[in-house]
Each structure stands twice: as C-alpha cells, then as structure tokens.
What we know:
Layout: H1 2-36, H2 44-71, H3 74-87, H4 108-141, H5 149-172, H6 175-202, H7 208-211, H8 225-252, H9 257-276, H10 283-303, H11 309-333, H12 341-366, H13 372-396, H14 401-419, E1 428-432, E2 435-442, E3 450-455, E4 458-464, H15 482-489, E5 497-501, E6 517-522, H16 525-534, E7 544-549, H17 552-558, E8 564-569, H18 584-593, E9 594-603, H19 612-621, E10 625-631, E11 642-648, H20 651-654, H21 657-662
Parallel strand pairs: 5-6, 5-8, 6-7, 8-9
Antiparallel strand pairs: 1-2, 2-3, 3-4, 9-11, 10-11
Helix pairs in contact: 1-2, 1-4, 1-5, 1-6, 2-4, 2-8, 2-12, 3-6, 4-12, 5-9, 8-9, 8-11, 8-12, 8-13, 9-11, 10-11, 10-13, 10-14, 13-14
Amino acid sequence: MANNKNNLVYAWILPLAVLWSAFLLFQVQPLISKTILPWFGGSPTVWTTCMLFFQVVLFAGYLYAHLLATYVPKRWQGIIHAGLMIAALLLMPISPGDDWKPTADVWPPGYILLLLVTHLGLPYFLLAANGPLLQHWFSQLAPGKTPYRLYALSNIGSLAALLTYPFLVEPNWTLPTQSGAWGWGYAGFALLLIPIAIAIVRNQAGTQEACELPGDSLDEAVPGWKTLAAWLALPAFACVMLLATTNHVCQDMAVVPFLWVVPLSLYLLTFIFCFDGEGWYRRGWLGWMAIGSIVLISVLELLGGMLDIGWVAVSYFGAMFFVCMICHGELVRLKPSTRHLTLYYLMIAGGGALGGMFVSLVCPLIFSQYYEMPLSLIVAFALALCVTVSSLEKRLGSIPLWSMGLLFCGMLAMLSGQLRSFQSHYLESQRNFYGVLSIGEVPTNDGQSILAMYHGRIMHGFQYQAEAKRGEPTSYYARNTGVGLALARLPKQDGKRVGVVGLGAGTLAAYAREGDYYRFYEINDDVIEMANEHFTFLQDCQAEHDLVLGDARLSLEREPDQQFDLLVLDAFSGDAIPTHLLTREAFRIYQRHLAEGGVLAIHVSNKHLDLRPVVLGTCDEFDLETLYITTAPDAATQQTGSQWIIASKNHQFLSDDTMQSAATNLGPHMVYAKPWTDNFSNLLEVLR
C-alpha cells in the first residue's frame, strides 16, 4: 500500500507540483513588474531591476533547498517546507498599496528591491526552492529514475505562465484580480505539498543506495573548481545576454510585458530543449547559427544602425536564443550525478544572480553607454567560435580551409560592427536608472554652432549657440509645430499657465513671457542638471517657472488642480514610450488639471510606433476634439520633423484659421483604437 501511494506521488502529484510551482513563479514576474512600472516613469530598468530580484531570490531559494536536502533528516524536509509555504499565506495579497508609491528623493533600484522583498520575498523564495527540492524528493521516492527531465517540465510551466500573461491574463483581468488569483493559486500549491511531505515521511526505502542512478557513486567527490566555475559562468553569461537584449529592444520601443515575455520565453525554451534530452543540443550547427546571427547584427549595424524594429527584434532575439542554447547545452554536458543535484542547481542560480547584478548594478556604474550589449556579442562570438571549432575537430579531425575563411570573415564583420558602438562623438554622457543622456555638437551647413541633447540615439532638443538665435525654439518645438502654434493661438495670451511633462533641453521655456507661469515635470535629475549646465532656455526664461522632480503622473496625482491653459505631454525616453502616460486613468488626471477650455498637446512622433489611434481613441472617450499637426524635417533651418495631436473641448480654439490650415487630414482609413488602461496596453496594434 505504501509503495502504491509513493507511486501516485512521484508519478502524478510531484510532477504536477513542479509544473504548478513554476507557473506561479513566472506568472508573478510580469504581474508585479507591471504593477510598479508606472511608479518609476515606465523605465526599461524597472524590469531589469525586478529581474535582479528574481535571480537573487532564486539563488537564495536554491541555497535553502541545498541546505535542507543536505543537512536536514529526510522525514523533516517535507514538513518544514510545507509548513513555511502555508505560513507565507499570511502575506497575501502581494500587490503593494498606494502608500508605497515612491517620492522623488528615493533611489529607484533600492526602493524597488525593498518593495519586492517586503511584498513578495518569502513566497517567491519558497517557490524558487521547489525546483531542486522536488527533484531531490523525486530521486528519493523513485529510485533509479532520472529527475533531470523534471527541470524541463519546470521550464514548460514557466513558459506557459509567460505566454498566457500578455495574451490571456493581462487583457482580461485587472491587476488586483490577477493578484488575488495568484494568491489563491499559491494556496492551492501549498495544499498540494501536504501529500508529498507525508510520502517523504513514510518513505522507508529511501536509502542512499536505492536513490542513486546506475553509474552513480556514493563516494563521488565534489566536482573540481573548473567544473564549478563552468556551472557558474555559463548561466551567468546567458542571463547577461537575456537582460542586455531586453534592455536594448525596450529602449527603442516601449516597456510592456510583451517585450519582457518574448526574450524570457526564448531563454526558457533553451532550458527546456537542453534539459529534456541530449538530442536537442547539437554543437556544430548551433555554433554556426550563433555566429551567423551575431554577424547579421553587426552587418546591419554597419549599414546604418537605425533599423526597422522588426529587424532589431528578430536579429537580437535570434542571437540571444542561439547563444543561450550553447550556454545551457554546455551546462547539461557537465551535469553531475543526482548526488550533487542540489549543488548543481545552486550554482546555476548563483550564475543567474551574478548576471543580473552585473547588468542591473555594475553596468550603470562603470559604463556611460549601454556597452554591455556589444561586449556580450563579442564574448558570445568567441564562445560560439570555440564550440564550432571543437565540433569541427571532433567530426573531421581538422578544421577545413573554407571553414577557417568563413570564421575569419565573420570575426572581421563582427568586430567592425560591434566596436563602432564604443566610438562616441558626444561631449558628455551620463547613465542612470532612466537611461543614457548625452550632449553633442550638431554639424550644420552654414557653420552655426548647435548643441543638442540626446536620450539614447534620439535627439531631445537643441539650441543655437550664437547670441542672436539662442532664444529661438527649435526641433520638435519650433514655432510652426503643433505645440508652437498652440502656444501662439491660445485664447489667453497674458498670464498663461503652462504645464510641461518632460523637460528635455528646456526648449519650451523660450515661449514664456513675463506674467506667464511654466511648470516642468521631469523624472530624471540628470536631465535637469544638463539642461541647466549646457543650455540657457531655463536661465533666459522670462516667466515664473518651477521644476518638479519625479514621475509626472504621480506628481500631478498628488497636486491640487493646476488650472493649466496648456498641458504638454512629451516624456519619451529615446524612442520608448511610457505607456502609463497615455492611459485612460492618466487622461483623467490631465483633465482635472486643465482650466476651462484648456488644451492638451501630445507629442506622438515615433520611429517604430503609430500612437495616433490610441491617443485619438482616448481623446474621443473624453469628448476632446482633436487636430493632428505635422511638420517635415528641414535641414536648412535644423528643424526636426514632428507629429503633435492637439486636443481640447474648446471648439473655438480648434476652429481657429491658423490651427485649421496647419492641421493634417488623417484620412478615411484611420481607425481609433480601444483606449489603453493601466491594466492593458496593446503594443502590437500600434506597430508601424
């Protein structure tokens, strides 16, 4: 009877527990990250910092599993773990309340980590331990059977969680509902552990001899330092590739769960393929595929750098997948006997934590640009080269001349493309939680000196240095742009109250006149520092003005009504968009701060995304009439092409002849999109 119960546990209940635990572990990652994303300006680094937490706590969970399995008597292991899981139910629900919304003076990475530890630390820690711990118990209950395929099953559960989140969970349930459902799922898993714990206590056949697989040795020594170093370095580098690639793509688009899920899903697929069986990992062709994808990225970089987002995503995600396949395939080749199973997984988790620390904490301190991406590709090329050469030598006995020629040409192309990333023409660059900010000189045909501010590769304003033209509004904010015309044609010409979300170089201060009031909202203190140090728009501002440090939406949410005659939304980072500033809830806040007849000016210029359907759909829901005003780039006047949507309930203002003549017809095919909300934003519908 006892054996039958053990068979039921290891054949059905224990695999189900592995699947369920992994699903919960990865379902909570986009859930909690999206919950706190709007509190930190929608920065891509929010996800990177959350990933650091997940990796470090995963390591802590694996360490706990290793110590529990090594030093605690078998009969107590299940009881202790199940008891802690049930105790963690007292921390539900996991979503932080509004009182946790940050103020402007917090250090975002530290605050995010504190928030996550407080609300999710213990439940995530215990879920993280389940992977190696359940496999260890499987080896006790099912002697002679390999537990390593359960690791592939675990990653299938993780992948299912990631894929269902953006396509099923996010569109259909609010964040509070998701949090509550996750709590109930956690409670169900805690109950599922009870029969497993009972089976471990009752298992009388779990002697060391019975638990070893054929070929295992009870006296097998701990692997040498080279093997341990490989167990640590390979997953560390795979994690660096994952985070660097995610950062790179998010910088050019938007910080949304969909763009987190795709690379993380590919990363998990490499674990599934490599740990499911030896047939998936083929060193030869995977080495060539990794080399080819890295060369493709480098060639595309040489051809222009500013690429279509489809090419960016496919090329970078493809390279990341093949490199992670190599890392995890080599890791599986080094797997030990089940005697050292928990140590093996502990080192894997430790490597992931080290990779997360490097990208999230070390890189912003030592690099002024996102150099971890080209550095990772150079190291990845070297790794793929070693694997390919080793495979050729093993299969053919030597390296054919044609292979040497191809590899050499690929190395030249790779180095030419990636080393370009280290060439900087900027006068100054600073990197912090919100990205890379740079100051550079812009060459002109007429020899006039121009200084520009860049966020990533996107210009965020510039200023003529000649005294006569220093006060001229430029770039996206020139006098014939949507925002320039709106400021010129406002019904209230004296004593205007203007709010600006996103400071940039401070260009809009050039429109201010005595008696006006301008209020600038800026989340990045480096922007404020550089705007004051390198540009004079703020110094020359004739109106009373204030600078509010912190996320604009949180600041506006906390402030009394500002009665703005014009509120300008221009808070993009690079070409990425902070989606929380374009949601229905955000527009409700903007409406509260507008004076009667007030105007919204929304900057929708973007290389990869067409934001017009979303903005127009939201304006329509709030009964705001709109005008779409575009300007073409003009090299002679250094004018940047721009797209603005001007929205207001003031029909007389929008009917002004000057505004009407500047407006662009949207055409009959423009379809308004469903307004985005804090719970849902569909990036796919706005891809160009």
